[in-house]
Amino acid sequence: MDVFSSLMDGFATALTPMNFLYAVIGVVLGTAVGVLPGIGPAMSIALLLPVTYALEPTSAFIMFAGIYYGGMYGGSTTSILLNTPGESSSVVTAIEGNKMAKAGRAAQALATAAIGSFVAGTIGTALLAVCAPIVVTFAVSLGSPSYFAIMVLALLAVTAVLGSSRLRGFASLGLGLAIGLVGLDSVTGQARLTFGQPLLADGLDIVVVAVAIFAVGEALWVAAHLRRTPLNIIPVGQPWMGKQDWKRSWKPWLRGTAFGFPFGALPAGGAEIPTFLSYVTEKRLSKHPEEFGKGAIEGVAGPEAANNAAAAGTLTPMLALGLPTNATAAVMLAAFTSYGIQPGPQLFESQGPLVWALIASLFIGNFLLLVINLPLAPLWARLLQLPRPYLYAGILFFATLGAYSVNLQAFDLVILLVLGALGFMMRRFGLPVLPLILGVILGPRIEGQLRKTLKLSAGDPSGLFSEPIAVVIYIIVAIILVWPLLLKLWRRNRPVTSFLPANASRGSEPTDVTRGSVSHGSHRADGPADGDVGRDGDGDGDG
Q1: What single DSSP character describes residue 192?
Q2: Ranges in the chain, pLDDT < 70
Q3: What's the rounded Cα separation, in Å, for the pair 82 and 63?
Q4: Is residue 349 within 8 Å of 2, Cβ to Cβ?
Q5: Which of 39, 86, 272, 458 could form a disulfide with 75 if both were Cys (CB 3.0 to 4.6 A apart)?
Q6: Residue 159 contacts residue 172 (beta carbons within 8 Å)
Q7: For the CA atoms of 459, 461, 467, 470, what is the dihedral angle to 10 degrees?
Q8: What is the 3-state secondary structure (H, E, C) of 171-188?
Q9: Using N-to-C axis directions, what is the helix angle for 2-14 and 352-383, rounded to 10°?
């Protein structure tokens, strides 16, 4: 009952005229930016982060809620109409969605994606409201050793599963931890990695880092790979669904939600695995399996619901523990930090009205997403015709303006340029972006918990293992690190005999499409897909 009353108070705050207006603006901005080719929700939020600086925290985060869900929906639009996923979690939507669009059913594909997003987002947000306080109650009982272990698990789990190799993932994490060290030591006052530059004494602003790595790095990368061929945008009318479409979609929406939320709440769970599981499940359960690969509506409804349910799931550990599990949550954590608010177990107590207003605004933003974007679908389709050079020049302009507005210092523009070049090089050499962002955000917090733990144990390293939960987590960490080696040894020693058909090693088309897209963009498994327009799932550009 306490959760319900707190949520009602949150609705009272979020539904004030000004806050409701900010929610509407957030949904429209988030969709308008997220619908553009090569831009995912993480980049949308990073780019629009400075826009909210003039607002007080509650209004700012209500606007963020709209941007968050709007950006998620925008990715499905590019996947369906252009076959260009805005991020890796939208890859599976593109498999059937673009085939539906080519068959003249773009309106139905967009409609089932929008309604599925609404259903999954509403259920996921309700689960967030119920689960987050439970997680907080558990987290309050933990000491510094357990917190340190949980943060180490989050970093290693996310780093180990992203990118084309674990080495690249850990290299990206090392860069992030190094950037997080810049500034004065909080205990000794010793300058670290400032190179004698007084303006670096306070460290690098996380907003500048996020905008540089996501927006500038992405814009430079996509601009370097622009195709000169014009966009082939499939026309779309007003989205609608017939009786048969509804009948074939409602069960995939619910199953996709059941897949998405738990994976979104887990470290390194993400939305890629549940979207693919949803796709495979719908193909197996469908009464029309012959339509898969040719434009089956279940293949859009299920994965898109899983994607949005995972988006709600990621906010549970971010709000309750201060642990982001994907790039979008990492940027939102940066937004909290920029306001001097520290997500974690104490957040619900110290900033209760703000948190419940944010959760209530997720419900509102989700509803606005459906009401606003279904009528505006033809407009978003026309927005895709914006010339790509103008688009990315505009992104660089707004990124520069936003970074400068943080501290009104020209030095931040130098940092923006340097880190933007770093973001470009990371994409060039296949380093995932998310571990770097997590390293910058969590690095100082991990250092603080480590120091606190060692102080409590008088410098004895055994203090790290002084709590049972910490021991269990370290065992999980060891399994994560050792498992690939054990799997490799097992594969090397297992019998060669295989009972698979001769062509099974090549995999079915959907599996290859998904793997190809994610691995092709492995350097951006946590961010937007590359901007190659017209690329079909296998990356050969014949779409």
Answers
A1: E
A2: 1, 37-40, 84-89, 158, 160-164, 226-238, 267-271, 381-385, 406, 495-543
A3: 28
A4: no
A5: 86
A6: yes
A7: 130
A8: HHHHHHHHHHHCEECCCC
A9: 50
Q: What is the pLDDT of residues 337-375, one digit of tens each?
A: 878 888 887 888 888 888 899 899 999 988 988 888 778
Alpha helices in 321-433 (DSSP H): 327-338, 347-350, 352-383, 388-407, 410-428
Residue with tokens 């971010």: 318
Q: How far is Cα 522 from Cα 500, in angstroms, rounded to an integer? A: 28
Q: Going by C-beta distance under 8 Å and a sequence separation of 6 or more, which residues neighbour residue 407?
A: 205
Say if residues 116 and 304 touch (Cβ distance below 8 Å): yes
**Model confidence over 30-75: pLDDT tens digits?**
888 777 766 667 777 777 777 777 788 888 888 888 888 887 777 7
Task: Give dist(CA 270, CA 426) in Å, integer.
Answer: 21
73, burial (CB in 10 Å: exposed 0-12, middle 13-18, buried 19+): buried
Among all chains, which residue has been given the structure tokens 């019998």? 495
Domains of the chain, by residue range, sit at: 2-491+505-524
d(CA 267, CA 354): 25
CB 381 within 8 A of CB 368: no
Query: Considering the chain, what is the average pLDDT of its residues?
Result: 78
| SS3 category, 191 | strand
pLDDT at 449: 84
Write out the DSSP string of 79-143: HHHHS--SSGGGHHHHHHHHHHHHTT-HHHHHHHHHHHHHHHHHHHHHHHHHHHHHHHHHHHT--
Strand 191-192 with 183-184, pairing:
antiparallel
Q: Which two tokens stand for residue 486?
A: 């054990």
Give the whole-angstrom CA distance, residue 155 versus residue 173.
8
